[in-house]
Write a structure and sequence with these properties.
Layout: H1 3-9, H2 27-34, H3 39-48, H4 56-64, H5 69-72, H6 77-82, H7 87-96, E1 107-109, H8 116-125, E2 131-133, E3 140-142, H9 150-156, H10 158-162, E4 166-170, H11 175-179, H12 181-184, E5 197-199, H13 207-210, E6 220-224, E7 233-234, H14 235-252, E8 259-262, H15 265-272, E9 284-287, H16 289-295, E10 309-310, H17 334-342, H18 349-362, E11 367-370, E12 378-379, E13 390-393, E14 398-401, H19 410-423, E15 428-430, H20 452-468, E16 474-477, E17 498-502, E18 509-513, E19 530-534, H21 554-574, E20 583-589, H22 590-596, H23 600-605, E21 612-616, H24 625-629, E22 648-654, H25 672-677, H26 699-702, H27 705-709, H28 715-719, E23 732-736
Parallel strand pairs: 1-2, 2-4, 4-6, 6-8, 7-10, 8-9, 9-11, 12-15, 15-16, 16-19, 19-20
Antiparallel strand pairs: 3-5, 13-14, 17-18, 20-22, 21-22, 21-23
Helix pairs in contact: 3-4, 14-17, 18-19, 21-22
Length: 738
């Protein structure tokens, strides 16, 4: 039976009432779809889709996890008492609970300022709740108001914790994570610090000691530590941060516990880099690997950090309230234990990979996987290569030591292969810092780089190694969130003039020349599988979002015209080298896209009949284009429809086979270095006479080419015949090339 018949007659004679208003999907199929949606998606469907406002399935999703960690973390006492984000929101949720929806609630995150009465209300009114997130609740409170303790909570709500299957808490073994609440939550109450610095441990112990023993059905324990990190520890501090963390799980959690979810790097190493426990009952460990890689994104050349473990048990007086008095009875060797934790705990990407490999090999029976997908993690090309010169100081003279690349290390390769096979790791290399005619002179002057040829050779070897491990090579042009200003003359453009010095001594002079688009891709273009090109929404970035009209000014036209010439040189230099390209994703102004249709190199690249195109209509809404197709996004790349910016074109060119493209590069005899230095003249990029129509650039689009760049355009040119950006028909279409 086809889907239309299913919708009309129903399976096994079911009536049409058994279908959902959303695309008329059968209810059972619609519920399967709902498993992949979050609270925000459900709210969008409820508001936008006809017939969904009363959908029971939508209500179930909305109430499944109604208050989440982002809703309650870092709320100060004044905000909790008087602003809508605080207690008013919590009271609103309580008042909305009735017999129809109380069984929908399965998980809740609670604020630091919640009361024992709130826990009692949950115990009595939410019978299906089996998961609590208490990670926003810290052990220290600076407030004159009455505060509860973990012991009082355990005595008040034993039945609530007895039914929990999942519990998320702040790291009970790190004093710093709890003491910094002074700045996050209670800055306005700082005057009460000395008199009202209260601890939730004051009459019994930590959350591990008081709450964990009550959780008889606990299957998953999650640990969150916002201020994770390492520094110089003495033996007492090692006991507090390592032994108390391990013993809190070993001594107080029930045997039903089989999964740990560790969001931060420091507790992960404290738990698994030592021999303090074999973790025989743990089967699955989920780790915050995505955020750990993001933290190391711009730390591409950070060297080892010398953490030290010292003898002694001295500590600050204020840490007494955090001390559970178990140090003297602990029989572990804290010096060895601490060294095992901090050894190799550097800030570099290389250290992270080594740590992952060593720990996964140490616990072969434990499945370690990331909390979030690693499919679209963005990295710098320098992460797996050494590009700096390191000078060693000898008695006679300095000499340069050549460091081997991390990617050449067998251990690193094994870690990368594990990431790809077990975690779906498909990194994206942000190429923006490489896109300069005088690279590496555009990088930080304080760093001493290897010669350009050596840097490019190492990057080429790294990419070749990744391909040998079956890791696809994905290059992005447009990931500028951390490297470029939000506005300025060239803030959102790629092809500005470059400046260099020629001559020596008294004959040294500066030279300002237009770009030749020598962007260091010649050596690796044939290995690239995916290429993404995108622009910020306020291109060309001169006026930012404050511009009053979409029509570019004369100065902006000059910048855009320069950009068109730059792209023509780019495609002329590199397009015929992308012989293994399988996907090209673009989000560019319409004038630039239309001019690409005049680039012979790009036309040849996309001329193979195996290419198909996915066209996505540019429009705003909750489900933006970037959320589905682009691997990264930021506020600067938000493409809500605005009348004050250029119209964008969004296309995905793809092919579904892996065979190389039959492309013939110009000047095949040239080496990579010679190809990068080859001058591309204006004659090389002129539009040839009698240029045939291309399947992806039909003739009607070419009519707008001149108007999109230099001429004043009417509303019909920009948005369609009626001047409206809302197009009729479906938002996407797929067209196979002729």
């Amino acid at each position: 039976m086809d889907l239309d018949s299913f919708r009309e007659h129903g399976e096994h004679g079911k009536s049409k009432e058994q279908t959902s208003p959303f695309l008329q999907l059968p209810n059972d199929l619609f519920r399967c779809v709902m498993d992949y949606l979050d609270r925000e998606s459900a709210w969008s469907l409820k508001r936008v889709c006809k017939g969904m406002s009363t959908s029971k399935a939508i209500d179930e999703l909305l109430y499944r996890y109604p208050l989440q960690l982002n809703d309650v973390k870092d709320i100060r006492l004044g905000d909790w008492n008087y602003r809508p984000m605080g207690q008013a929101r919590w009271n609103g949720l309580k008042s909305s609970i009735n017999d129809k929806n109380r069984h929908h609630v399965q998980k809740l995150a609670l604020s630091h300022w919640c009361s024992i009465g709130d826990f009692k209300w949950i115990e009595q009114n939410l019978p299906s709740l089996t998961s609590l997130d208490l990670s926003a609740i810290k052990d220290f409170v600076w407030t004159p108001e009455e505060t509860w303790t973990w012991k009082a909570l355990s005595e008040a709500c034993p039945k609530l914790f007895a039914r929990l299957e999942e519990l998320e808490v702040s790291n009970w073994a790190d004093y710093t994570a709890h003491s910094r609440i002074e700045y996050s939550y209670a800055y306005n109450d700082y005057r009460f610090k000395q008199q009202f610095r209260l601890s939730r441990r004051r009459d019994g112990g930590s959350v591990a000691k008081m709450i964990f023993p009550l959780c008889k059905k606990l299957k998953t324990l999650a640990i969150r530590e916002r201020y994770s990190g390492f520094h110089t520890w003495n033996e007492w501090e090692v006991h507090q941060r390592v032994c108390c963390l391990i013993d809190g799980i070993k001594n107080y959690c029930p045997p039903t516990l089989t999964k740990l979810r560790v969001h931060d790097y420091a507790p992960y190493r404290s738990l698994f880099s030592t021999d303090a426990s074999t973790w025989s009952n743990i089967k699955v460990v989920e780790i915050g690997l995505y955020s750990w890689m993001e933290d190391r994104r711009d730390r591409d050349v950070i060297g080892p950090i010398p953490y030290r473990i010292t003898q002694g048990h001295h500590h600050r007086e204020e840490e007494e309230a955090f001390d559970d008095k178990t140090y003297d009875d602990c029989k572990r060797n804290h010096m060895d234990l601490g060294n095992n934790v901090v050894q190799g705990a550097g800030a570099s990407f290389e250290d992270l990979l080594k740590s992952l490999r060593n720990i996964t090999r140490k616990y072969p029976s434990v499945t370690i996987k990331p909390i979030d997908t690693l499919r679209d993690i963005t990295l710098h090309p320098f992460h797996l290569v050494n590009v700096n010169q390191r000078r060693l100081h000898g008695n006679a003279q300095q000499h340069i030591q050549q460091q081997p690349d991390p990617v050449a290390n067998v251990e690193i390769q094994e870690a990368l292969q594990w990431l790809a096979e077990k975690c779906g790791w498909r990194p994206i290399l942000a190429w923006d810092s490489m896109m300069c005619d005088v690279f590496p002179a555009n990088l930080e002057p304080s760093r001493s780089f290897l010669p350009k040829e050596e840097v490019l050779s190492r990057i080429k070897a790294m990419i070749s190694t990744l391909r040998s491990l079956d890791i696809p090579i994905r290059i992005s042009i447009g990931d500028r969130t951390n490297s470029c200003p939000s506005s300025g003359l060239d803030g959102n453009l790629y092809f500005g003039d470059y400046k260099m010095f020629i001559g020596e001594g008294e004959n040294k002079r500066e030279l300002l020349a237009p770009t030749q688009a020598g962007f260091n891709l010649a050596g690796i273009a044939h290995m690239v599988d995916e290429l993404t090109i995108q622009y910020a929404g306020d291109v060309p970035g001169v006026h930012g979002w404050l511009r009053q009209t979409r029509t570019p000014t004369n100065a902006e036209k000059v910048l855009i015209d320069r950009e068109l010439l730059g792209w023509r040189r780019f495609w002329e230099r590199y397009a015929r080298l992308f012989t293994n390209l399988k996907k090209l994703t673009t989000n560019v102004p319409i004038g630039i896209y239309n001019d690409w249709g005049q680039c012979e190199g790009l036309r040849e690249l996309l001329g193979d009949e195996r290419w198909e195109m996915l066209e996505v209509e540019e429009k705003g809404g909750d489900f933006g284009f970037h959320g589905s197709y682009f691997p990264f996004t930021s506020l600067r790349y938000s493409h809500l429809r605005r009348r004050t910016r250029l119209k964008f074109v969004q296309r995905v060119f793809f092919r579904q086979d892996a065979k190389p493209l039959h492309l013939k590069p110009k000047h095949p005899q040239l080496e990579d270095k010679e190809r990068e230095a080859l001058e591309i003249t204006d004659a090389d990029i002129e539009t040839p006479d009698g240029l045939a129509e291309h399947c992806f650039w039909p003739a009607e689009q070419e009519e707008l080419k001149g108007k999109a760049v230099g001429e004043k355009r009417s509303a019909s040119d920009v948005d369609g015949e009626d001047g409206n950006t809302e197009a009729e028909g479906p938002a996407t279409k797929k067209a196979k090339s002729d």
